[in-house]
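User: quick one
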Amino acid sequence: MDPLPELLAIDGVMLVVVAWFAVGLAGIAALHNFRLVGRVLFPLSAALSIALAGFALLALPGAPQSTVLAIGLPNLPFHLRLDALSAFFLAILGLASAGISVFAGGYFRQGEGTPPGLLCLHYHLFLASMAMVLLADDAYAFMVTWEVMALSSYFLVTTNHRIAEIRRAGFLYLLVAHVGAIAILLCFGVLQANTGDYTFANMRAQELSPFWASCAFLLALFGFGAKAGILPLHVWLPEAHPAAPSPVSALMSGVMLKTAIYGMLRVNFDLLGSPLWWWGVVALALGLATALFGVVFAAAQVDMKRLLAYSSIENIGLIVVGLGLAMIFAAYRMQSLAALALVASLYHCLNHAIFKSLLFLGTGSVLHATKERSLGKLGGLMRFMPWVAWTTLAGVIASAGLPPSNGFVSEWLLLQGFLFTGELPNPYLRMLVPVFAAGVVLVAALAGYVMVKFFGVIFLGRPREEKLAQAHDAGGLERLGLLWLTAGCVLLGLFPVAVLETIDPITVALVGRGLAASGSAGDWLLLAPVSAERASYSPILFLLVTAAVVVLAFVLVRRFYHGRVRRAAPWDCGFPLQTARMQDTAEGFGQPIRQIFEPFYRMHRELPTPFDEAPRYKVTVEDPLWAWVYLRIAAATEAASRWVGMLQRGRISIYLLYSFLTLVALLFLTQA
Amino acid sequence: MTSLTSQVINLFASVLLLIAFAMLSQRRIVTLINLFALQGLALVGSTVTVAWATGQHHLYWSAGITFVLKVVALPLILHRLIRRLNVKWDIETLINIPTMMLVGIVLVVFAFNLALPISEFSNSIARGTLGIALACVLMAFLMMITRSKAVPQVIGFLAMENGLFFAATSATYGMPMVVELGIALDVLVGMIILGVFMFQIREQFDSLDIHHLEKLKED
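Assistant: Done. Structure below.
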């Protein structure tokens, strides 16, 4: 008997991709069958996601595996390669999509535009193309799968395509995605350095001059930045996320944005070789601007999905800050510090994928239960939707970066990275980078503020509308999805050392040094990125102490205080009547931030006069970059096309004259 | 003999050019169609001469096709067309005729200069005629530009094809048979489609004056 050929992890990943494809096609066969698509196909796809994560984690510590698929154009096969970096992002894809797919099984309902079977196909094409983007090892395969990803997600965004606003949002997304794709294509063109060989292996071997390397870096930053939502290419995010169904928003925000980060890492650290120091500064500054912009705008939003979209912009900003820091360190050959910053970035990618998916799914459940996206009409839902509320709380804590959640760990690691900038040889950087660190801290604090607003206004207080009392909790499959992601948040927060050890092969591959050899080696309880003397963090200890303090306080209060409770009508502060409308609103809660950061916004206020019979207060907050950048581009384009439009005279003789003159001119040229 | 043949070919070429000038200056549509048929005849004559002189038998075939198509069929169709459209009378040109003749002369000079280096490399017996062929093409184009009615424009288009065909026979003893057949079919189909178009234009605007098409422009 022949021994079975050894199943490599890359084959496993490809099997999952093919299976996803098959699930999508099965959806076409059951075009209008909600029961089959929701109860069978989506949970099946979640199981495949877990398998994908398993294969990826299996492959992470091992040597890179590669294979060649003879599909596509003749003589231009797909080169695929599974190395540590791909494996890590595949694991993110698998872990996040497992929860999202289960949730999606219970989420999609009748009458939401696209029939469920078609939706199932788009969804699984999206998943499969993301996996293939992460596996691609030549520019051709990368671009093809990248475009499939953009297109399938476009169709997912426009699921409710009967609404004009949603079609507009989808178009904006598609436009930005394509502008970005052009930049990426050009970047690969620069990277192959006139050899005509577009495999990544060849690009890795090329030594570019600093000028061309910088070109490639800037093109990659622009191209992948368009997908990730870096300033000023973030405009599609707050439009597309509210338009898309919640599981799709979760997938796009949680995973798709990470493929852009993957692209940046792949180009900057793998294909380009050693970075220049100013690249890091550019990335750092852009990342910080993006993060600050995102969080400040998130604070001003009154639509819960727009709020989360801006919060995604903020998190991407933080991830890019980490990348920039890693580039600066790598440029000065400070490998272990580069590894630290890189780890913080990667860890935040993972965390953000989990907690932002969780939050988007939570808003999906709220949306289904109440048909409301506006924060001003929600409130007090914790009583009616306890499952959603408690799981969302876990995501909120993580997103706010509070210990012992996972969000805290990555932000802490990032700030640890900043603390070592004093060792940089460049004096300007030594002075400048701490300012960036202060900015990061500001962003982290404001993120907490935003999350308090998000959770407080939706779930706490009293219902602002009567119909909210009829809100129903999430169904079984939805609960399962929410619980999976909640468990992810908690476990990633409690066992950071295990995560760091998993990430280690990536940093070894990219910057030549890992963190495993540093302070926390061998101690799975204590996280100490550099050395235990310098800084350390033990989440389990923290959790135990917190829990002990809470229990102690509870017991003490119950024991010593409750006996003396005297029940009486409280003083009503002169307000005998208290209605739900007297609670702090989303606008009211965000008002201080709007006041402080006023120059950031383009605000239109409509204030009523004191004598108004039916007073209305309205404030709209707009993105200033829209007017500064995009409307200018649009005006310039229109002016240019008006000039071109002068060519159109409507007379055949003139048109014939054009071709005649062209012909004569060309003949003249060929003669000369 | 060779010199006599090339003299004959040159004669036909100059007839071709003369007719091209005549077409450029002709106002009446009926005469224009007759001139077009004459040009076709001159083309057939030159093709047959080249075929006889060089022994290229497939050129007889293309001469035959040209005769059937351009001397008989297309003029007949055009005559029928103008009778049915009732547009026999004079047509005004956009630029006055003396100016157009001057421009035509400039074009001929240009075409000859252009063809000079190519003719020197060519070793066919009719090499001097490439410039004339090119001039015919350009002048037909000029006619299309300066006429404001649809029918003369169609004739200009067909005359342009005549010039191309002449260029092909004179420079390289004709194109491959398949290409020639394809072009012949193209011209025929193009003619039919343009005829249909002319009826449509008249339906729409009660006139064949293409000024009316300016309304189609988007503002």
